Amino acid sequence: MSYVISHELGPYFRDLLIKDIKNCHAQANRVVDGILGAFRTDSIDISKLLILSRDNSNVNKTVEKMINDAMKKVNAELLNVGTCNLHAIHNGFKAGTTETNWHVENFCMNIWSWFQKSPAREEDFENITDELNDAIEKTILYFSSTRQVLLGKVIDRVFREEARRLLVDVSASDRATFFHDVKLVYHAIADNLKKHFPLKTTFLKDLHVLDPASRTKQDSADTMIRVGRAVPKLLINAQVD
């Protein structure tokens, strides 16, 4: 049976997987043709397209450029607010966690693997949590290295109130080292975000005018005009002015 699985069924499913993976990747022109074709099929004016989003700031750049070029032919263009800000946030937190030698990521992954890879240990954990406190979650959260912001939630699941109380009994020197490392983490996060956040994008800065409290500021009228002009096809010049 093991021979059949390894040498007969294995190669078959491997070939299917490779075929599916190859079909998942399309050239930029095919993606653009598909998008523009969908607009034409549904009789949607391409100039009404406001923005393109993607789950990675380093992919589909050519697609975005080609779509924008197509829109410029009909006197329109995409709204540009910079790259994916969520990635900038996750990478900023990653820069902070790697600034110290805590190795929190590895610890959280090891804890998850320790219970996840063994049904017996996972069952023991659930039984213990039932005996200690019904409010304790019955599962250990998985930490993904590409979702750094969720690290706090994972740590919170690992260290519940009982574990936090043990951290109070640390020495003065260890406490000083801890707070020094915390400062390093915050500084590293701030420095990384300042480098990669689109802080110089005027449109994003001007969006504060959407807050009613900001509309009483002296330059609020000019700010609203800039926002109106920045969003393609939202308003005509006569409406903005």
Specify the biggest β-sheet.
Answer: none
**Gyration radius over CA:** 26 Å
According to DSSP, the number of beta strands is: 0
Question: Distance N terminus to C terminus?
Answer: 78 Å
Query: Which regions have little confidence, pLDDT < 50, spanning 5+ residues?
Result: none
What count of structural domains? 3
Q: Give the fraction of residues assigned to helices.
A: 55-70%
Strand content: under 5%
Shape: flat
**SSE series:** HHHHHHHHHHHH
Mean pLDDT: 77
Q: Which structural class should the secondary elements be placed in?
A: mainly alpha
Helix segment count? 12
List the helices and strands and how they pair.
Elements: H1 2-24, H2 28-41, H3 61-72, H4 85-97, H5 104-116, H6 119-132, H7 151-158, H8 161-166, H9 172-196, H10 202-206, H11 220-230, H12 237-240
Helix pairs in contact: 2-3, 4-9, 5-7
Summarize the structure.
This protein is mostly helical and 241 residues long. It is built from 12 helices and no strands. It has 3 domains: 77 residues, no CATH class; 110 residues, no CATH class; 39 residues, no CATH class.
Give a verbal description of the structure.
The structure is a single chain. The chain has 241 residues and is mainly α. The protein has 3 domains: 2-78, no CATH class; 87-196, no CATH class; 202-240, no CATH class. The chain has helices at 2-24, 28-41, 61-72, 85-97, 104-116, 119-132, 151-158, 161-166, 172-196, 202-206, 220-230, 237-240. The protein is flat. The relative contact order is 0.09. The model has no long low-confidence stretch (mean pLDDT 77).
